[in-house]
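Standup notes
- DV: blocked on the single-chain target, sequence here:
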Amino acid sequence: MSFTVRKDEAKGVVVLGVDGQLIVGNRHDLKAKVMEAMDDGETKFVVDFTNTGYIDSSGLGVLVSLAKKIREVGGDLVLAGLNEDLRTLFELTKLDTLFDIKASAEEAISGF
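- DV (later): unblocked, structure below
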């Protein structure tokens, strides 16, 4: 499990890639990376789940928490690259109404 962080300089969007799973054991790592970027003044984020197979309830919780914190500073968080199972998870939990979900990170970036 690892996270990648890159910045699309043209749009000023921080893209965080989640490789593997977003679960109780690593959710704080994702939160720390977002908070660090926010401390540097970043407000536009994409979390790319293209290489993610599973998200547990604590992973969903950290995404909700991050969305709230980012919106409080006038920013936005977009999710991208959800596979069919993850898309179903977001629909069943009604979180698809909370998050803007795009098919790919590129589509999410272009939406800013």
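- Follow-up: The two ends are 28 Å apart (CA to CA).
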